[in-house]
Amino acid sequence: MAAIDMKNIVKKYGDGFPAVNDVSIDVQDGEFMILVGPSGCGKSTLLRMIVGLEDITSGDMMIGDKRVNDLAPRDRNLSMVFQNYALYPHLTVYENIAFPLRLAKTPDAEVDEKVRAASKTLELDEHLERKPGNLSGGQRQRVAMGRAIVRDADAFLFDEPLSNLDAKLRGQMRSEIARLQKRLGITTVYVTHDQTEAMTLGDRVAVLKRGILQQLATPRELYENP
Ligand code: ADP
Ligand code: ADP
């Protein structure tokens, strides 16, 4: 786990327009931080700068006590959970979760220990031999999270993970993600354009508009002072 401290982050794309304009957000160790705002407000750009997929024009991106501005994504030890889950249809749940460990050439015994521990936490232990195509949307989401967990990442990043689900499943997954995050206590940054998600999921909410941080507050404070 680690805190993520963004200090005066600016991102200008090729045409010089500031997609992110002097944004400072201090995500505490173990905190669930939401980035919310309308399309084009800069939230994906900010998330991609945390992961290292986008260069930072100016400012400091700190993970723990390390400045990571120039670190490659693979050296940042973060786990990103994508919108479409990116599961491998031909692999079992077990092998989908084990995938990052296989890539890292982790010994079999250790892979087994980690996959079983993660699937227990995620209540997937009865589904390890099944294929993703036979699972519900919620179960698939948990497999994607299992893959993120086994890596012992310092933080989770979510890019609109529920936007492709129907309203009912979205509601279920919302509470599931909140419950899991609390249980794991892992630092989390979660991007959404959905107000309800923002107000129900996070410890704090960062509201962005046209690249500028408008508010940084708890959901309760936002209700009282919208
Ligand atoms: P959001 O995730 O909130 O929808 P983005 O971070 O995708 O917002 O975009 C923020 C701004 O940056 C928008 O004005 C968008 O047009 C611009 N932008 C995003 N990606 C690029 C890119 N690769 N090149 C140029 N401009 C971009
Ligand atoms: P868009 O800019 O079209 O909205 P995304 O924000 O989903 O697309 O882009 C994320 C990109 O980052 C994808 O092309 C994905 O393949 C790439 N990527 C590769 N490895 C990682 C990783 N470990 N964490 C996050 N993103 C990754």
Written account of the structure:
The mean pLDDT is 91. α2 crosses α3 and α2 packs parallel to α4. The radius of gyration is 18 Å and the shape is globular. The chain contains 7 helices and 10 strands. It starts with a strand and ends with a helix. Strands 6-7-8-3-9-10 form a 6-stranded mixed β-sheet, sandwiched between helices. A 4-stranded antiparallel β-sheet has the order 2-1-4-5, with helices on one face. The protein is of the alpha/beta class.
Oligomer type: single chain
Q: Trace the largest sheet across and list its strands.
A: 6-7-8-3-9-10
**Structural class category:** alpha/beta
Summarize model confidence as the mean pLDDT: 91
H and E string: EEEHEEEHHHEHEHEEH
The number of helical segments is 7
Give the beta-strand count: 10
Give Rg in angstroms.
18 Å
Write a compact overview of the structure shown.
The protein is α/β, with parallel strands linked by helices and 226 residues long. It contains seven helices and ten strands.
Protein topology:
Elements: E1 4-12, E2 18-27, E3 32-36, H1 43-51, E4 58-63, E5 66-67, E6 78-81, H2 93-103, H3 108-121, H4 137-149, E7 155-159, H5 167-184, E8 187-192, H6 195-201, E9 204-209, E10 212-217, H7 219-224
Parallel strand pairs: 3-8, 3-9, 6-7, 7-8
Antiparallel strand pairs: 1-2, 1-4, 4-5, 9-10
Bound molecules: adenosine-5'-diphosphate (ADP) (2 copies).
